[in-house]
Amino acid sequence: MRPYTVVLIIPTGIGAAIGGYAGDALPVAIAISQVCDRLITHPNVLNGAQMYWSMNNTLYVEGYGLDRFADSSWGLQPVHQNRVGLLIDQGIEPELRLRHLQAADAARATLGLDLTDYVVTDAPVEVKLNTSASGASWGTIGNPGSLLRGAETLIQQASAEAIAVVTRFPDELDRNTLANYRQGTGVDPLAGAEAVISHLIVRNWQIPAAHAPALMPLEVDPQVSPRSAAEELGYTFLPCVLVGLSRAPQFITEPNKNFTNSAIWAKEVDAVVVPATACGGSAILSFSQTKTKIIVVEENNTQMEVPPEPLGIKTIKVNSYLEALGVLVTHRAGISANALRPSILSLRCLA
User: Fold this and answer.
1) Which of the residues in the chain have pLDDT under 70?
2) Which residues are within 8 A (CB) of 77 and not within 5 positions of it... i.e. 6 or more apart?
């Protein structure tokens, strides 16, 4: 019997009630990983600043790479270990840079991760943050070339197999936006720009990448929500990124050339779990054209308001992730979910 494979998607920067904060979707991912053979998900789900949870059957796939996987352009090749290159924005102040280098050294010494020597970009990246009319966050990069050149150096001179990026983000955030996020009611103001950075590197170099923003620590706030609290610890969000990238699958971009028996392709995905109002992304649109079961979770509200019905996407609606777990268990077992209900209608004769 082939492995039962699930994809868990919670888009970044859209204010998801679960998965819109600092690692608060990790419990969902951990639970789902227990009822499937392979779980494929992305950094927004698994990143929790200095909080992380290693799961052997879970694949850490950056969002652009996940989109290419979903449309069958790329495959995923599981690995035992990646050599991770660290790319640091020139715009980060010396003391803050040192804090991130110390976090990287700590990951080498305490977790045994394999990191290359680091590269500093040849110009400040100059990240700017924005918010769309829907409330979702996004951002721009002033010097994208500096990121690409730095990644190229890590790949060609240090043999990096994955890229961890740390860029300086603005400290001057909208006061209300920041307060809402820290209290667990708003949109992550950094997430949209983070996605732009990782997408850029993965699209151009076809290797795993993820991003950690560099910010000065905030003043202590006793009202911080538990969902946002992971980002209040220390000086860096880098540890979870390094852990995720250390075993992130490599991308297979030429199937006929690089195919191996352990590679994973979109046609092998049995089910996808996504918030019910976040069905407009590329990956979901691609999976909707296949036999993959799409399970939408209604209580995970987002700012996007893109349900499946106007898009003609056939889904299984559930109220919660607890209910989604039940659907996955019955699907994997080959049991109709209707058989678990107290009454079953008799068969009807088709005309």
Assistant:
1) 131-138, 171, 173-192, 218, 231-232, 255-260
2) 249, 250, 251, 252, 258, 260, 262, 263, 264
In tens, the pLDDT along 69-119 reads 999 999 999 999 999 999 999 999 999 999 999 999 999 999 999 999 999
Same domain membership, residue 279 and residue 228: no
**Residue 94 sits in a domain of what CATH number?**
3.40.50
Let me know whether 244 and 263 are in one domain. Answer: no
The CB-based long-range contact list for 180-185 (8 Å cut-off, 24+ gap) reads: 181/21, 181/228, 182/218, 182/221, 182/223, 182/224, 182/225, 182/228, 182/232, 183/223, 183/224, 183/225, 183/228, 184/21, 184/225, 184/226, 184/227, 184/228, 185/225
Same domain, 113 and 258: no
Amino acid at 208: P
Q: Which H helix or E strand runs over 7?
A: strand 5-8
Whether residues 225 and 259 share a domain: the answer is no
Same structural domain, 191 and 110:
yes
Domain that holds residue 183: 84-251
Which residues have CB under 8 Å from 334's CB, separation 6+?
none
Which of 79, 97, 76 has its CA nearest to residue 88? 97
Q: With respect to residue 346, please indicate whether it lies within any of the assigned structural domains.
A: no
Angle of CA points 266, 272, 275, to nearest 5°: 140
Distance between CA atoms of 249 and 79, rounded to whole angstroms?
6
Q: 184-206 as b/e, with b when 16 or more CB fall inside 10 Å?
A: bebbbbbbbbbbbbbbbbbeebb
Terminal alpha carbon distance of the chain: 36
Measured CA angle at 314 (ends 310, 320), to 5 deg? 95
Six-digit token pair at 98? 């040192």
SS3 state of residue 157? helix
This model's pTM is above 0.70: yes
Instruction: Give which of 23, 18, 43, 87 is closest to 297, Cα–Cα.
Output: 18
CB 71 within 8 A of CB 266: yes
